[in-house]
Amino acid sequence: MHCALDHLVISAGNLETGRDWAQNLLDIAFGARGEHAHMGTHNHLTGMDRGAYLEVIAIDPEAAQPAHPRWFDLDNFSGGPRLSNWVINVDDLDAALAVAPLGVGRVVAFERGVYRWKMAVPESGVLPFDGCFPALIEWQSEHPAPALPNHGLALRRLKLSHPNAEALTTALEPFGEAMENVRIVPARVPSLHAEIGTPSGEIWIT
Known about the structure:
Layout: E1 3-11, H1 15-26, E2 34-36, E3 41-47, E4 53-59, E5 82-90, H2 93-99, E6 106-112, E7 115-121, E8 135-139, E9 154-162, H3 165-172, E10 182-186, E11 191-198, E12 201-205
Parallel strand pairs: 1-4, 5-8, 9-10
Antiparallel strand pairs: 1-5, 2-3, 3-4, 6-7, 7-8, 9-11, 11-12
């Protein structure tokens, strides 16, 4: 099974607020707004190195309330914009789910414009290890990253902090190809931190 970092997720209570916060922090501009009708969310994207991208996402106040929990636990999001999740791209989602921990989710098919993908979405909206375990995605079309704005953003390091760091490390072993820049550390409070190379220098997103 081949896998790689697909994208990093910045969650926000309001999309425009989240976009402006991320743009000011990174000194770059995001692309046009997109929508996810099935999840009642909307987003802005910008490209990163190695074919990955950065996403700012929030609940769409104009969209219908879905009958299921939204992804990335957005139904329970509060506070300011922050790095909340990460996503691994796999070439065989069924094989990935077979070696992933329980709770990664059920497979849901998505389509937006020319892009089609399958993604494992947790029944509760919360990914394992308090969101420190990645969402799993399999693209069934061209990947969107080449069409996104590219400002030279580069992931230097993704730090996953969790009280059960040893178990998280074990759970991620089957996805070793995507772990080159990932560091797992023990901590009392689960959190994600990403060091990003930007036009203005090295910036931490927390």
